[in-house]
């Protein structure tokens, strides 16, 4: 009896100090990515919309973070069914310092929460400079509940895509395809900005863009390396692949820019870094470092030409969220099915190059399901909101700038310490919830 008791105790999960330390650092790194995204997006818009754009990221820290703790975490990671989790951990019931794997359960919850926060914030890049702030907050709350939590459960929480064998180490489908496709739908529903296609809309602060990209890369080491959920060999592999892949994407992107346009642009370089990070995310813990370099180089092409193609259309995906995150995530998820190797992660599967073509088919299934579900549900959420609230600002409000009209302040004030308050007669008139792209031009 004593031997049996000791065996049970030995088999019980215990908290590892080393793993906990790494995951504490990783959680802080991923949380930093949301302010980093604010700088990346904020620099890409016009100065009159800089604060509003940055606030769209910052507000996710509160709105999505609290929602995650209250109910979305339970829906994503409670056992539940193959389609959705349950409410066992709602209001953080049963989420304490007990071991989940080798880290405290409460830390696992917090780490996963940082993913939900930045995923919702990513979508904002497609609707900046025109979507009203209140409806945007309502949208990301509903989207987290109805899109992010279910897909996270399918892929990571024991759901049906996980049992099918879909590989997504750190969020190619759950984060980037989800956000990228949703951003595309949101841009189509809202329509273009009033100046889109009529005048050049240029970044107001390219150094902000570079700062944001650098901080995103820094935080991404926790995003991918932390997804091992422990310190050790697997975290080191994911960390190194996160180090290498964006380097290859950056160089290919810069060369494409130079040979096509005669300039190696800073915005292009920053975009290439982010695309490389996006693409390696689903593969980070399943492929070799050499494969990470190849994946990063290959990933530059689809996203680069998707941005070039979008620029010739009437689609106003303001900051090219779909081309960067949607196309980048699709590319990375599919290439995971090509480069995956059990020699580097025995818990995964071999990919096409290791003789398992079926894994590429499985990856395509995960991509297709995520694209369809995110697209349809985002359309339903936005149309539902549009039935009860005005989604976007009118032309007059856009002309004044979203900083002043939505927040009553300016990024670059005209007087020391001044806050610009609109007079009553400058209040925007009511407008339709969505303006067709053709009308916006």
Any key phrases for this structure?
single chain, Ammonium transporter fold, 1% strand, mainly alpha, disordered C terminus, 16 helices, 441 residues
Structure characterization notes:
The protein has 441 residues and is mainly alpha-helical. It has one domain: Ammonium transporter AmtB like domains (Ammonium transporter fold, Orthogonal Bundle), CATH 1.10.3430.10. Helices cover 64% and strands 1% of the residues. It has a two-stranded antiparallel ribbon. Helix 2 runs antiparallel to helix 3 (50-77), helix 9 (233-261) packs parallel to helix 11 and helix 11 (289-310) runs antiparallel to helix 12 (321-339). 53% of the residues are buried.
In short:
Helices cover 64% and strands 1% of the residues.
Task: Output the CATH topology.
Answer: Ammonium transporter fold
Estimated helix fraction: 55-70%
- Characterize the quaternary organization of these chains: single chain
Q: What about the largest sheet? A: 2 strands, antiparallel
**Low-pLDDT regions:** 4-10, 416-421, 423-441
> What's the structural domain tally?
1
Question: What's the structural blueprint in terms of helices and strands?
Answer:
Blueprint: H1 2-11, H2 17-44, H3 50-77, E1 99-100, E2 103-104, H4 105-122, H5 133-155, H6 160-164, H7 172-190, H8 206-225, H9 233-261, H10 266-280, H11 289-310, H12 321-339, H13 357-386, H14 395-400, H15 402-407, H16 437-440
Antiparallel strand pairs: 1-2
Helix pairs in contact: 2-3, 2-4, 2-8, 3-4, 3-5, 4-5, 4-7, 5-7, 5-13, 7-12, 7-13, 8-9, 8-10, 9-10, 9-11, 10-11, 10-12, 11-12, 12-13
């Amino acid at each position: 009896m004593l031997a049996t008791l000791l065996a049970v105790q030995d088999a019980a999960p215990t908290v590892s100090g080393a793993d906990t330390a790494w995951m504490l650092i990783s959680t802080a790194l991923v949380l930093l990515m949301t302010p980093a995204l604010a700088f990346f997006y904020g620099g890409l818009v016009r100065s009159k919309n800089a604060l509003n754009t940055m606030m769209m990221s910052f507000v996710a820290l509160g709105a999505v973070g609290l929602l995650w703790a209250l109910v979305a975490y339970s829906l994503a990671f409670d056992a539940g069914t193959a389609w959705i989790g349950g409410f066992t951990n709602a209001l953080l019931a049963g989420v304490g310092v007990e071991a989940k794997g080798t880290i405290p359960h409460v830390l696992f919850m917090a780490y996963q929460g940082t993913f939900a926060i930045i995923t919702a914030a990513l979508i904002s890049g497609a609707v900046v400079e025109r979507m009203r702030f209140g409806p945007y907050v309502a949208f990301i709350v509903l989207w987290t509940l109805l899109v992010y939590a279910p897909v996270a459960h399918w892929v990571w929480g024991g759901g049906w895509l996980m049992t099918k064998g879909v590989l997504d180490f750190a969020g190619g489908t759950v984060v980037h395809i989800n956000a990228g496709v949703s951003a595309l739908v949101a841009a189509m529903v809202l329509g273009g900005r009033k100046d889109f296609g009529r005048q050049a809309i240029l970044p107001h602060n390219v150094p902000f863009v570079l700062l944001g990209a650098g901080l995103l890369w820094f935080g991404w080491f926790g995003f991918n390396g932390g997804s091992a959920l422990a310190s050790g060999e697997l975290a080191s592999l994911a960390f190194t692949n996160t180090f290498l892949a964006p380097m290859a994407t950056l160089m290919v992107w810069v060369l494409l820019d130079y040979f096509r346009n005669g300039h190696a642009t800073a915005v292009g370089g920053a975009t290439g870094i982010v695309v490389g990070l996006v693409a390696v995310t689903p593969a980070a813990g399943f492929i070799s470092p050499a494969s990470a370099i190849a994946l990063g180089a290959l990933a530059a092409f689809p996203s680069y030409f998707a941005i070039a193609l979008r620029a010739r259309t009437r689609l106003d995906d303001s900051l090219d969220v779909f081309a960067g995150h949607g196309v980048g995530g699709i590319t990375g998820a599919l290439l995971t099915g090509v480069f995956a190797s059990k020699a580097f992660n025995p818990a995964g599967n071999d990919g096409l190059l290791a003789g398992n073509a079926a894994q590429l088919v499985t990856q395509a299934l995960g991509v297709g399901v995520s694209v369809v579900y995110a697209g349809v549900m985002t359309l339903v959420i936005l149309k539902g909101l549009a039935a009860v609230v005005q989604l976007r600002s009118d032309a007059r409000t856009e002309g004044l700038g979203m900083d002043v009209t939505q927040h009553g302040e300016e990024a670059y004030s005209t007087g020391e310490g001044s806050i610009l308050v609109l007079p009553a007669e400058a209040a925007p008139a009511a407008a339709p919830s969505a303006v067709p792209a053709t009308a916006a031009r």
